[in-house]
Every structure is written in structure tokens, then in C-alpha cells.
Design a protein that fits this description.
Layout: E1 18-25, E2 36-39, H1 46-60, E3 66-70, H2 74-78, E4 80-81, E5 84-85, H3 104-126, E6 134-140, H4 143-150, H5 155-178, E7 183-190, H6 192-201, E8 216-220
Parallel strand pairs: 1-6, 1-7, 3-6
Antiparallel strand pairs: 2-8, 4-5, 7-8
């Protein structure tokens, strides 16, 4: 990670048209090699942030596209999502090395990844750039149970991280293609349990003592 040195707008007449936020719940890092990484002081759950962002945009213009999808809800719960009908592919069990569909934690996590891939496939036919400010918000919650089951340094967990980063790459590429690169993608980790535990002891803003223990925000332009 590197220190956050404020936001600078280089081209005020060529601003991004969309923001894509992807929250990875329950972990401190997904060990991605893409983008720029910053330590993140987390003092609220991601849904609170989403509500604040979406409300602010709705106050300015009611023609914005605002989409929030929790892939952990599963296909049955999502039904007709805000992006239309999602059709995830069947998981190819033969491609797995350490993860096992017989484990509920592994299976649910892999189903989330299939939904992310289905979203990436749906984006080109569903979304049209129209110069409005759009926000797409995705939540992945199945990684932490896999790390808890196998151990965060296990080969199974490493495989899970590799597959997650590959699925995220698919989503990033799809949005970049639709918006012709005029999109900011932020992938961040958010451990809600630590937020609740800290708030129960000390009210006010959470300040971490060292970057090593902080969640991360990864910005991909």
C-alpha cells in the first residue's frame, strides 16, 4: 500500500462517467497485483456508505443508474437483478485444485464468483454510457468463510484469492469497454466484525495504529 495523498482532477472536462465499487467483506486484503493500493480507515459498514452515495446522487439527478448487488444472496434471491436476468455457468469442478464443492463454504464462494462472471457478461448488452453519473456497487461476502475453513495461508485459500481476482478482472474489463475507459473501479476490503467490535468500545471514528493491519482500497482506472 501507499499513503493517500488526496484526489487531484487532471482533466475537469473529461471526467469519469461511472464509479464501480466492489466490497470484499470480512478480510483485510485480497493480495491483488492490479491498480494502486491505499490503506483504508473503515468506520462504517459498506451499506451505510452506499446509502449516502446513492442518496447524494438522487438529490442531484434522478436519471442516474444506481445498482447495488450482493452476490452472496445467490441467484434465487437476486431473481431479475438490476442488470437483468443473470445466467451463471455451471461450476467446472475439474478445474478446481484445492477447493471442493462438497464444502458448503467453498461452494457458496464459487457460486458468488460465477455470478460475478455472469454480471461481466451481462454488462455489454445492458449498460449504455449516456454522460450521466452512474454507480455500480457489488458486495462479495463468501471469501472469509473459505479462509476460516482452510486457513488464510492454505493452498485452498490461495486458489480462492486467485479465482476471485480473475473474476474481478472480468468485471473491470467489461465496464472499461462499455464506458470507453471513463470509469473508476475501487475494490476494497471491509471487515464488518472489526467495525462493530471497535464501535462497542469507542464511539467516533476508527483510527488504526499501523498500515499493516488496515483494510485496503484498490483503485483501478
Amino acid at each position: 500500500t501507499q499513503p493517500w495523498d488526496a484526489l487531484t482532477i487532471d482533466g475537469p472536462f473529461d471526467l469519469p462517467e461511472a464509479v464501480v465499487s466492489i466490497a470484499i467483506e470480512g478480510v483485510e486484503s485480497i493480495h491483488s497485483t492490479k491498480g494502486i493500493h491505499y490503506p483504508l480507515n473503515v468506520d462504517e459498514v459498506e451499506e451505510t456508505t452506499w446509502q449516502a452515495v446513492s442518496r447524494r446522487l438522487e438529490e442531484r439527478d434522478n436519471n442516474n443508474t444506481l445498482v447495488r448487488i450482493c452476490v452472496g444472496d445467490g441467484l434465487d434471491a437476486l431473481g431479475q437483478s438490476a442488470l437483468g436476468e443473470l445466467k451463471p455457468s455451471t461450476i467446472d469442478e475439474s478445474s478446481l485444485k484445492k477447493l471442493d464443492l462438497k464444502n458448503d463454504e467453498d461452494r457458496k464462494f464459487l457460486e458468488e464468483l460465477q455470478l460475478l462472471r455472469a454480471i461481466a457478461q451481462k454488462i455489454p448488452t445492458t449498460i449504455t454510457a449516456n454522460s450521466k453519473s452512474d454507480v455500480y456497487w457489488f458486495v462479495v461476502s463468501g471469501l472469509r468463510p473459505v479462509l476460516d475453513l482452510h486457513g488464510k495461508d492454505s493452498e485452498a485459500s490461495q486458489e480462492a484469492l486467485r479465482l476471485l481476482n480473475a473474476a474481478l478482472d472480468n468485471v473491470v474489463k467489461a465496464f472499461n469497454n462499455v464506458y470507453d475507459g471513463k470509469v473508476v473501479v475501487a475494490v476494497y476490503t471491509n471487515d464488518a466484525n472489526k467495525i462493530r467490535n471497535t464501535r462497542s468500545i469507542e464511539s467516533g471514528r476508527v483510527e488504526r495504529q499501523a498500515d499493516a493491519g488496515k483494510p485496503e482500497a484498490e483503485v483501478i482506472e
